[in-house]
Write a structure and sequence with these properties.
The complex is a heterotrimer of chains A (175), B (656) and C (290). By secondary structure, chain B is α/β, with parallel strands linked by helices. Chain B is built from 18 helices and 34 strands. By secondary structure, chain C is α/β, with parallel strands linked by helices. In chain C, the strands form 2 sheets. A 4-stranded parallel β-sheet of chain C has the order 2-1-3-4. A 4-stranded parallel β-sheet of chain C has the order 6-5-7-8, sandwiched between helices. The longest helix of chain C has 18 residues. Classes of the chains: A mainly alpha (175), B alpha/beta (656), C alpha/beta (290).
């Protein structure tokens, strides 16, 4: 038989849901199935007031298998990863981790990576850090760099080629 | 042994027959040595099945019977009766569990049938070696011990006392009454709690068959069903019970008046060092708190103790000592009640940080006219009337990080209090209720809930993440799943509905009684549906919240039920003891006493023989048949009737 | 001298120099020697939204490099600390993942064994060094300075995997601050997030979170706001002006790293502690002498 969501005419994406649940159990002990929608997560969500993220709704949609509508949305990128939802959930569900999984899925499916993430990724690939040494302003408007402060050299990968090789292969793998 | 064995295979409807080939099994059994009859039937535990067994016993002159069916926990007792009725000793019966251990555990038809054959083969091997056993008789002491003087203990005591049994009712605190005495009104009838409780308390006080021991604790339990020896420690009140009239002059005079946090008032009020827990206390006698009284802690109270001066009956006695009393009883009913979870562990709700975040029981004391505020609802921080009160339900309940269970009474207690608050503070008071589910399951409960929905109260479906103390007010953000909106509630008083948990000393007390606890720490019932008041320890029963959270009606029902279960034992002059007890081969026994050291029931003693040697001797009345001594015995001299090595080993060989 | 390998992460060594300066100045007083190691990379946590396996790999390789030194790690950035801790937990509890990641580490000649421990600034100061030792070096106590502490999110949650500080009532910074003579006070917004993790894709929302918290801190009348995370500090200090603009408020809250405050009480020169790099009005802080 079938269950169809009449607003989106979407059916349960059972395989995707199973994939996400397996990934969650590989990395944490929490399972999303136990959620009883008390919304304690959303009540305390740091991103809710500003950006209308509803972690309990994310979990509910996952339970229903309506994955695509989340993967294709912008809302999943509003999470601040403050971990309050995972901390306080009475059923040990972790909406924040579900959101990471959904974001990973969005990237893997070729959706555009928002904001500066691409730049950070490229920086890691080339020098191993999300950004290179910056010039900073002092309170009395002078400019300083790391070298000016007598601090030792920044620690970076030694054999860059090998490092890049592993990361490039990784970039296309899933958890 | 010249055995003629009958094998009876049960289909158990389709429970066994759908996987195990019962016809093939029946035929197989016929091929075994000494099996002279092998029959199968759909429901061996039915009358037809029973008659089949009895007729076969007569027809084939059977010596032993094997029944291949469900777990012996289900019907071993039943079949023992059937076999006895057929003329064979009930212990010449062996059960082969081909349901729980076979058909219910596997999926492959062929291999399940092979396994069933092995199990039957083993059972037959044992059946060849079974010996008839005769249960020994135990005398029953027709008296009962009831531990805990709350409504459960009171009800049980009255039921048993009315039936003519002598009851020792032991209560830890200075008065009986328990949690019900702390309540103002009860749901759903809104009866005044004290008004319905005190008549029963008076009955207990006046009943000729009840011996009340208040301010006392059970410290030791020895013996077994029908014959328990219980040690009761009576703590010193430092007040002569014969002389004290309960007038309360001492309480007013006490140097520490209104300085000590009152346990009865859940810390919302203060008392003196000499105190009466509440006005309707039974017994109506004062007690001195040894942890705070100046005379008892420092040896002097000003120039002289003011209570002594005030007492016209000269009842104060600082020289009183603790007493220990021993009583003999045939059955014990445990009714020790519950505690509320301390919400401090859910720090985010602000209980530890703010005076204006309180629990339902603390609010109940404010609502009660005999409470610390005389029934006025006042904010603890400034003593002013609150304009807005917000409830948070399920604090620590249904929470995998605290108590995974539902507290069962939280929803109804909160709704009841809402009714009383509206009554006291008027219609204008804003009452908000943050809930996860409303569980109004009992008779009259849904009507009560409907009533409250009709009041001007704000229901928010959701659990708040935190309670913030903003100084003048408390702030709660709550996502309401009914409207899908986030609300900020600014409120004067927050009432948390905490989880119900076992008493702090439940673990220790369970050990004293030798009863089991379930995973949540409450005392364990023998079967949740069919034996809810029994424990696994014969002669000990449980009633009320010590078994699990419940409301007053379920508590009283359970209390009467436990009384009936206890009366079942007490009304008999003697009981039959399970005959599968330990037995010693006195010639083989070297008197090493290892068995004595492992026996939890003190059922073995060392007996000296004439030639200077000694051997172990089992007191069959005390032996519970646990088998610990059998396992511990290094020489094999200790065996167990019905499970001797020479019976078990062939069973193992044949099965494998 | 107790030796720790320093794991600096990305933001501290490339931008938040004041944190690194104050750490290197203060820890020798307390008998701690930091060892710099070559070959580290980003911990991977900023990439968790993009590819969590990469995050796992990056954390694992850094742990493996540190293990080669046989020293426990000092991780001043809570984001890194969480990433490395979670990686350790997965690697220690899931054999399948451990084998898979170790298989990937082979290319770089590394292997994760799970042999070292990890500390952040707060538990290093509170648990390892201890307040009694810290008190000994205080030359210029803070004279009842009213301090608002900011632990951030990654240092205290998720408590399930074990964090250096309690998640609902963290007090370790308060204990240290009291030993310095300060008066740290509780405030309702204490556990609120700075918003830093949103700056990659929603910078204005991130600044709104920052501004909202600082506004409250200012309203409560605190003398100084203390943090222990380069990402948080970047929001509260480096971007305070922008945050103020975003929430339409004039923010003038002095924001310092805990280690900077520590250094001041030890009598260390302001510039050596990187106080010239703080963009918030730190000159307002009145201490027992400059």
């Amino acid at each position: 038989m079938s269950i169809v969501d009449l607003t989106s005419m979407g059916e349960s994406q059972v395989a995707l849901r199973k994939e996400i649940n397996e990934r969650l159990s590989r990395l944490q002990d929490e399972i999303s199935d136990y959620c009883f929608q008390c919304a304690k997560c959303t009540s305390g969500c740091e991103a809710h007031k500003l950006l209308e993220l509803e972690p309990h709704k994310i979990v509910a949609l996952l339970k229903r298998g309506l994955i695509d509508e989340m993967v294709n949305s912008d809302i999943i990128w509003t999470c601040m990863s403050c971990f309050k939802c995972r901390e306080r959930c009475p059923q040990k569900v972790a909406p924040v981790e579900i959101l990471f999984a959904l974001k990973n899925m969005a990237v893997a499916s070729g959706k555009q990576i928002p904001g500066k993430y691409t730049a950070m990724l490229q920086s890691i690939l080339s020098i191993g850090l999300i950004q290179d040494v910056q010039s900073v302003m002092t309170r009395d408007s002078k400019t300083l760099k790391r070298d000016d402060l007598g601090l030792p050299e920044v620690s970076k990968p030694v054999d860059v080629a090998k490092f890049q090789m592993v990361l490039s292969k990784l970039a296309v793998e899933k958890v | 042994m010249g055995n003629k064995i009958g094998v009876f295979i049960c289909h158990c409807g389709i429970n066994i027959a759908s996987l195990v080939d019962v016809k093939a099994l029946t035929d197989y059994a016929k091929t075994l040595d000494d099996v002279v009859a092998s029959k199968d039937y759909k429901y061996m535990c039915s009358d037809v099945g029973a008659n089949l067994i009895k007729d076969s016993i007569k027809k084939h002159k059977l010596d032993s019977v094997v029944v291949a069916c469900c777990s012996p926990r289900m019907h071993e007792h039943t079949f023992r009766g059937v076999v006895e009725a057929g003329g064979v000793n009930g212990f010449n019966l062996e059960i082969a569990n081909i349901r729980e251990q076979c058909s219910w555990a596997h999926e492959d038809r062929v291999r399940a049938t092979e396994k069933a054959e092995a199990l039957v083969r083993g059972a037959v091997a044992k059946a060849r070696l079974l010996e008839p056993l005769k249960p020994s008789k135990i005398d029953v002491t027709p008296m009962a011990l009831v531990v805990g003087g709350g409504i459960a203990g009171i009800q049980t005591s009255l039921d048993l006392a009315d039936e003519g049994f002598r009851v020792y009712l032991v209560e830890k605190t200075p008065s009986i009454g328990g949690r019900m005495a702390q309540l103002d009104k009860t749901f759903p009838t809104l009866d005044c709690s004290s008004c319905i409780l005190t008549p029963k308390m008076m009955e207990v006080a006046n009943h000729p068959n009840i011996e009340l021991h208040t301010y006392s604790e059970v410290v030791g339990v020895e013996g077994s069903i029908g014959n328990y020896k219980v040690r009761i420690r009576k703590k010193p009140r430092f007040v002569d019970m014969e002389k004290c009239t309960g007038c309360g002059d001492c309480v007013e005079a006490c140097r520490l008046k209104d300085r000590i946090s009152s346990e009865f008032d859940m810390g919302m009020g203060k008392r003196s060092a000499i105190y009466m827990p509440f006005p309707q206390a039974i017994p109506l006698k004062c007690t001195i708190d040894p942890d705070h009284c100046l005379m008892l802690t420092r040896g002097k109270c000003g120039t002289s103790p003011l209570c002594v001066e005030a007492c016209e009956a000269d009842a104060i006695d600082f020289k009183q000592k603790e007493e220990e009393v021993e009583v003999d009883v045939g059955a014990i009913v445990v009714a020790t009640g519950y505690d509320l979870m301390d919400p401090s562990s859910l720090y985010e709700y602000g209980y530890a940080r703010s005076d204006n975040v309180i629990t339902t029981l603390e609010l109940e004391r404010l609502i009660s006219s005999s409470g610390p505020t005389g029934g006025e609802i006042l904010r603890p921080s400034n003593g002013e009337k609150p304009g807005s009160i917000t409830y948070v339900l399920c604090v620590g309940s249904r929470d995998e990080t605290e108590c995974s269970w539902c507290c069962r009474i939280g929803c109804m207690s909160a709704l009841k209090q809402v009714y009383l608050l509206k009554e006291k503070l008027g219609d204008d008071v804003e009452i908000n209720i943050c809930y996860t589910d409303i569980r109004s399951f009992g008779k009259g409960y849904e009507e009560f809930y409907r009533n409250i929905r009709g009041f001007k109260t704000n229901f928010f479906r959701g659990r708040p993440s935190e309670v913030r103390d903003m100084g003048d007010y408390l702030s709660i953000d709550i996502f309401d799943t009914t409207t899908n909106k986030l609300f900020e509630i600014r409120t004067d008083l927050v009432v948390l509905v905490p989880a119900l948990v076992p008493r702090a000393d439940a673990d220790d007390f369970a050990r004293v009684l030798r009863i089991s606890q379930s995973g949540d720490g409450f005392f364990l019932e023998a079967h949740p549906k069919l034996r809810p008041m029994d424990t696994f320890t014969g002669g000990i029963f449980i009633a009320g919240c010590c078994q699990g959270p419940k409301d007053i009606q379920d508590t009283v029902s359970m209390a009467s039920g436990a009384a009936a279960r206890a009366a079942n034992i007490l009304s008999k002059e003697e009981l039959e003891a399970e005959p599968q007890v330990a037995c010693v081969d006195e010639d083989a026994c070297s008197g090493c006493s290892v068995c004595i050291s492992v026996c939890a029931y003190n059922a073995i003693e060392l007996v000296k023989e004439d030639d200077g040697k000694s051997h172990a001797k089992v007191n069959e009345a005390l032996c519970m048949g646990c088998g610990a001594c059998v396992g511990a015995c290094p020489s094999g001299a200790m065996q167990q009737y019905g499970f001797k090595d020479k019976q078990i080993l062939p069973m193992v060989e044949e099965t494998v | 001298m107790k030796k720790y390998a320093l794991y600096p992460g990305c933001v501290m060594p490339t931008e938040q120099y004041a944190y690194e300066q104050s750490i290197r100045e203060v820890l020798p007083f307390l008998d701690i020697e930091l060892v710099d190691i070559k070959g580290f990379s980003c911990c991977g946590e900023p990439m968790k939204s993009v590819n969590q396996l990469m995050t796992l790999y990056l954390s694992a390789r850094n742990l493996a490099i540190a293990e080669k030194q046989g020293l426990d790690l000092f991780v001043p950035c809570p984001i890194c600390h969480l990433s490395l801790s979670e990686c350790q937990r997965v690697m220690d509890n899931n054999v399948e993942m451990r084998d898979r990641v170790n298989g990937m580490l082979v290319t770089e000649g590394l292997k994760y064994e799970g042999t070292i421990g990890m500390f952040h600034t707060v538990d290093l100061l509170h648990d390892v060094i201890g307040v009694e030792e810290i008190k000994k070096h205080v030359k210029k106590p803070l004279d009842g300075l009213k301090v608002a502490t900011h632990y951030g999110c990654h240092l205290i949650r998720p408590s399930e995997i074990g964090r250096p500080v309690d998640s609902e009532n963290p007090q370790k910074m308060e204990t240290v601050l009291k030993a310095l003579g300060a008066e740290p006070l509780d405030y309702p917004e204490k556990l609120d997030c700075c918003g830093a993790m949103l700056s990659a894709n929603l910078p204005e929302s991130a600044l709104t979170k920052t501004g909202q918290k600082l506004q409250k801190v200012q309203e409560h009348g605190f003398d100084v706001f203390v943090d222990v995370c380069p990402w948080c500090h970047r929001m509260f200090d480096s971007r305070q002006v922008k945050a103020g603009e975003t929430v339409a408020a004039k923010l003038e809250v002095p924001v310092v790293y805990l280690t900077q405050l520590l250094g001041l009480t030890f009598g260390v020169d302001r510039e050596k502690l990187g106080l010239n790099l703080n963009l918030s009005p730190v000159d307002k802080i009145n201490l027992g002498g400059k």
